[in-house]
Write a structure and sequence with these properties.
Blueprint: E1 11-14, E2 25-33, E3 36-44, H1 51-65, H2 73-79, E4 83-85, H3 88-103, H4 113-118, H5 132-139, E5 147-150, E6 153-156, H6 166-183, E7 189-193, E8 196-200, E9 210-215, E10 227-233, E11 235-242, E12 247-250, E13 253-256, E14 271-278, H7 281-294, H8 296-305, E15 309-316, E16 322-326, H9 328-335
Helix pairs in contact: 1-6, 3-7, 6-7, 7-8
Length: 340
């Protein structure tokens, strides 16, 4: 879900132990990038993908997509009056963002960067939160219809328009690393960046499906995650958005990092977290934010109608107790068993 220094709710993966086999090795590499950790596990005859290579990919993506880098393309676009020529990475993220904006009836909107900044969830800290007049003024600078891709150039309708792709860029980064592995002939792998995961193939040599644990909400200070559910998959992506770790508090009230682009205010509904399964991580990452903003009932209906995503919801009842539910296609992930 985004390049945040503090990550709120993560999926965690279990790769298990593999018996030593001369032909196939279990290779694990890890590092730190984009304000979080990353891990790659793959099965191959040799170390054909290295930490240095993955670090290089993530550094390149930072130079395009990170608001925390003043020299990045996205930072330069936000500072420009009319727009600028962008690279393939930012263009791919913008195209997917426009698609998600259209399909979500405006609930996914990367132009809310001024509002994200005003509420203190962007690169710069704030001393006070915006009042209603300030929110109304910032809303005049938002709306994905105010940006447009013209060839290799991203243009803006108003100079005050600025974008924040944190809600989708980490999923895209996972996909880029996964594509790099596949181009090198790797067919069994797990790529994880900040809790966003993409899987292909199975653990070797036993050919068990990959297992992914979904973390339960609980004590914010807990060091070890408590696993709420475990799913098994052999291809696809899983991402999570949640508000129990990424939030602010004012006058004793906590408010979510998820900003509703229709109102300009943080969302306020019963959802604690949403975990999305999709064919790729950029899709899952976009829609976990959309579903969080919708609230439980609308999000569940929306998910059931879409064929390309499935979702799992953790929500809070009025008495404070925690419950969970899932779309029908996500329930199938709980029930899968290795029969081959």
């Amino acid at each position: 879900m985004g390049w945040y220094i503090l990550l709120f709710l993560k999926t965690v993966f279990f790769s298990g132990k593999v018996a030593p086999v001369s032909e196939i090795q279990k290779i694990q590499i890890a590092g730190f990038a984009q304000g979080t950790t990353w891990h790659v596990t793959y099965y191959a005859g040799d170390s054909i993908v290295t930490k240095i290579q993955v670090d290089s990919i993530l550094t390149r993506l930072d130079s395009s997509l990170s608001l925390y880098k003043p020299y990045s393309l996205i930072s330069r676009f936000n500072a420009s009056r009319k727009g600028l020529v962008i690279d393939d990475d930012l263009a791919a993220v913008v195209r997917k963002s426009i698609e998600a904006w259209q399909q979500s009836e405006g609930l996914f909107d990367i132009t809310i960067q001024p509002l994200v900044q005003a509420w203190g969830f962007s690169a710069r800290p704030v001393k006070k939160y915006p009042d209603s007049a300030r929110v109304r003024a910032l809303l005049r600078c938002t709306g994905t219809d105010k940006i447009r891709l013209k060839g290799s150039r991203l243009v803006k309708a108003k100079s005050c328009v600025a974008i924040d792709v944190d809600g989708i860029a980490q999923g895209y980064s996972v996909d880029v690393v996964a594509s790099f592995l596949e181009r090198r002939g790797i067919v069994d792998y797990i790529v994880e960046i900040g809790g966003e995961i993409r899987v292909k193939g199975r653990k070797q040599p036993g050919k068990e499906k990959m297992k992914i644990g979904i973390e339960a909400p609980g004590d914010y200070e807990m060091k070890a995650p408590v696993i709420q559910r475990i799913i098994t998959i052999d291809e696809g992506a899983v991402t999570t958005s949640g508000n129990y770790r990424k939030f602010h508090e004012s006058n004793g009230k906590k408010f979510s990092h998820t900003i509703d682009p229709r109102t300009g205010y943080p969302t306020d509904n019963s959802l604690v977290s949403v975990t999305v399964f999709a064919k790729d991580a950029i899709t899952a990452d976009a829609y976990d934010n959309v579903l969080m903003a919708m609230g439980l009932e609308k999000a569940l209906r929306f998910t059931q109608q879409k064929q390309d995503i499935a979702a799992y919801f953790i929500y809070r009842l009025p008495d404070g107790s925690i419950r969970d539910t899932a779309s029908s296609r996500f329930v199938e992930l709980f029930e899968q068993q290795d029969t081959e």
